[in-house]
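Q:
Just now I want nothing more than another pair of eyes on a protein record. Here is the record:
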Amino acid sequence: MPVEVLSEAAQEMLDWQGSGMGVMEMSHRGREFTTINEQALQDLRELLQVPEHFKILWMQGGGIAQNAIVPLNLSCGDSANFVVTGSWSQKSYQEAAKYCRPVLSAQRNPDDLEWANPSTWHLSDTAAYTHICSNETIDGVEFQELPDLLALGHESPLVIDCSSHIGSRSINWNLVGCAFAGAQKNIGPAGLTVVIIREDLLGRTLATCPSAFNYSTVAKANSMFNTPPTYSIYMAGKVFEWMKRQGGVAALEQAAIAKSQLLYNFIDQSEIFYNPIDVAWRSRMNVPFFIHERAGGQERCNEFVYLAKSAGLLQLKGHSSVGGLRASIYNAMPLEGVQALVEFMRHFEARS
């Protein structure tokens, strides 16, 4: 979270703009929260340039819940295509099997980049939609461009899980049918999930779908079918205002490029650190890196995490499923933070 946003929220914690109550005490249907909610929606639509024929929904459950909610709403029990590029798209593929017939259209192979060409994907012609995770937080893999399914002669709508890089780059909505994102990476605190869906895709929901997860129901109720996560929406709204002050998504994208290139450039010239992802697929948001076995491997990674914490550099331990190290350099992380990390890595390597 941007420090500026946290400071503003702290000042308003007990009394939002003279209302005599904090946001957590407000009725979600009251005038005060309605004002907060409408402004947040307007700012998000403006920032991401979301066309009017897309609905923006506030939901809960994060990206993991959407792995079930998407097929419940879009599959009609039919097949759906999945492109598995890492841990999160693998989870999506497995979860969808409960509600539709998932087709493994492509799977990332680090040793053979042929899979990366969408024209080689095995897309089912009868699939209700095609799912990708456009940025894999654990694996550090990012789609630099979204696939153009129509250009491939395939008409299924593209569904993207953009949880970990939403707001860090523009989205070509001409290529997308539905996008979803947990808020807790670039938007705000955990508890809020954003779903942006093309209107013509509403109304395909399975009869067994819970009402609170039905996109049509949520859309008709303007995300007020059940009590929404009001404080998370308020904080997201604060972040959207901050994003606009930074110059919007275009400026944040340039900042993401600068921060990630600084870190990757150091890793690539290092004698002990390395990143295993092909350059064309490296994430700007999540940079996993490792220490060569000849330089101590995982044991040295553990030492790195311990010493980094003493230097004020936190949460650098790699995901438990892959080990190593990981730097998540979301929008709120300033360039100075990445510079401090690189300098620490330089000193760590020098003492090896």
Q: What stands out?
A: The first helix runs from residue 3 to 12. The chain has a mean pLDDT of 96. DSSP finds nine helices and twelve strands in the chain.
